[in-house]
Each structure stands twice: as C-alpha cells, then as structure tokens.
Amino acid sequence: MPTMPAAVVTALGEVRCEDAPIPDPEPGKVLLRSKLGSICGTDLHIVYMGWNVYEYPLEPGHPGHEGVGEVIDGGGTEFQPGDIVLTAPNIWSSKTFAEYQLIDPSFLLKLPNTAPLSHLLMAQQLGTVVFAARKLPPLLGKTVAVIGQGSVGLFHDFLLRRLGAHRIIGIEPIPSRLKAGVTLGLDHAIDVTGDKATEAVLDLTNGEGADVVVEAVGSTATLNQSLKMTRPHGRVAVFGLPDGKDPVLFDWDTFFRKRLEMHADFGAQDEPGLPAFQIAVDYITRGDIDMAPFVTHQFSIERVQEAFDLAESPDDGALKVSITFGSD
C-alpha cells in the first residue's frame, strides 16, 4: 500500500512524522497533495492543551486546517487535476498536516497564480478574521483593544483600521509582534500583560474601558481580563479557544454588572462558498496587505515536532510557522 509522511499527535505536546496510507480517490471528494500547511492557535490548543481530544493517537494529518494543495483527483467535482487550492476544512475534518488528503469540495477554494503560495496560504487565517470582523458592531469613533498580537491579532489590526475604528490598542509582550502591530495600524502598543495591561487600557480610556475587546489568545486569564477592560455595555469578541476540555472559571460578576455583550468567532469554514476566504485572497492578490512579514519560518514535515515547539514558544521573530512537503 502506498504511504505518505503525515504528522501524528501521539500524546499531549507530542507530534511526530509517521508513514500513513495514502487515501484512495472517492466520488464526491477531492484528493489533493499538500504543498504547504501552517500552524495556528487552534492546532496549539489541541496539541498542547488537549482541547477536543479524547484519545490518542489522533488521525494522521489532524488537526492541520490551514493549507495549500494541488488537486490530484477531483472525484467528479468542479475541481480538476492540477488546480491549486486553499484548504479550509472545519476543525472536525482537518487533515492538512499529511502529504495527501481526501477532502470535501465545500472546504476548497481555487487560487490564482498571481501571488506566492506562501502568501496565499495566509488567506486561511485571514479569512477567519474577515468572518469574525463581520460580527462586530459599527466601529466608527470606537476604541478597540486586541489582546494578543500573533497573526490573528495582527489581522484584526488590519481589518479594524479598514472598518473605521477610531483607536486600536494592541497588547503583546513579544516586541517583534508588537512592532508588526504598529505597522498594521495600532495606535497604542502595550508591552505588558495581566493586570498591568488592563490598567493601561483603562488609563487610555479615562477609566471607562474599550468599546470592543478582541480576545485573540485563548486562555482563561485573558478571557476574564477582556471583561475587565471593556466599558459598561461594551462587547467582547472571543476568537481564542478554551485552554483545555474542562470547564473554565468565568468572571460572571463582571460580565453581569457591566451588562456586556459577548460572541464567539467560529464557523467561517462552514459558510457555503467560503466567502470570507475569497475576500482574504482578494486582499492578498491586490496587495492590500503584505504577507511577506508573516512568512517567517518553514520546516519539512519530517521536522514537525520542531515546528510545533517553535509555534508554541515563539522566538527568533517567529510569527507564522509553516510545514512543507516533498520538494515544495
């Protein structure tokens, strides 16, 4: 049986490259060969925190869901062999960290040849942020705080400025990421965390708090922190995932007393036609956003553990860590 290299999560924090069977073509599904995949916060929550994990090992290629691939067999769908596509599966069916994968065509978007693949790969995560931004209230004249300046936080900076936010406050302890946020539109860059960051936001807003806070980290601490730095009657947008599969402590009192609104940003991959991802591709191909600074580190699939470790504990300017397959 033909085999392929694939990432396999074998225990909490442990992911290794193993040989796995190449899936057979199937009518109604698309068989593609992965060219690039990138690691996102969701992957880190699953691999290092055990979110949505109940037994090991995980299926080969899971939880990868940010990828670019070449169609090998279209399975009778609209996709043809040789098409280059963005893979945007929902997290329940994600297997992008494998050299080959069989995927529902609803999770694929054909890509143009007008930008480097490493840049177009970023359209997956940017697309999820486009989806999230559509759920925000009108931002003209408003102050928005973004907790976390990883790629999700940075993409929020980019879109918040385009949506007319009056002031954007970024919170991030890693200097290189905070500097990138300033480039993308931050008005105030806060390089501390925890209570000191909350106090800084309150100081900048005359004690009121931000109109909108985007939680782009995914931890119990930052979730509750977002409530404290939001003004009364404000809104919290929760992009980050839970930091485990157990229930988390929630500052219900602050949420209740301030009469806050809160929503989760989840589900972009399930929209018919993937419109948010198409918008993201258009931003990239038009040059509205330069993805070169995001493409910082690449590792072959054989070095997948190193790639995950760097993404989990970023240094050396790591912003977006990608996986390569074969000679691509």
Task: Give the structure's gist in a few sentences.
This protein is α/β, with parallel strands linked by helices and 328 residues long. 28% of the residues lie in helices and 27% in strands. 47% of the residues are buried.
Strand-helix topology:
Layout (H helix, E strand, L loop, with lengths): L2 E9 L2 E8 L8 E9 L2 H9 L16 E8 L10 E4 L12 E4 L4 E3 L6 H4 L2 H11 L9 E5 L3 H12 L4 E5 L3 H9 L4 E3 L3 H11 L5 E6 L4 H9 L1 E9 L13 H7 L2 E4 L10 H12 L8 E6 L3 H9 L7 E5 L4
Parallel strand pairs: 8-9, 8-11, 9-10, 11-12, 12-13, 14-15
Antiparallel strand pairs: 1-2, 3-4, 3-6, 3-15, 4-5, 5-7
Helix pairs in contact: 3-4, 3-9
Distance between the termini: 24 Å
What low-confidence regions span 5 or more consecutive residues with pLDDT below 50?
none
- What's the domain count? 2
- From the helix content, strand content and strand pairing, which structural class follows? alpha/beta
* Oligomeric assembly: single chain
Percentage of residues in DSSP E strands:
25-35%
Order of SSEs: EEEHEEEEHHEHEHEHEHEHEHEHE
What does this protein look like?
The protein is α/β, with parallel strands linked by helices and 328 residues long. The chain has two domains: 175 residues, Alpha-Beta Complex (Quinone Oxidoreductase, Chain A, domain 1), CATH 3.90.180.10; 129 residues, Rossmann fold, CATH 3.40.50. 28% of the residues lie in helices and 27% in strands. It contains ten helices and 15 strands. Strands 3, 4, 5, 6, 7, 14 and 15 form a seven-stranded mixed beta sheet that branches. It is globular, with a radius of gyration of 20 Å. The relative contact order is 0.16. The model has no long low-confidence stretch (mean pLDDT 96).
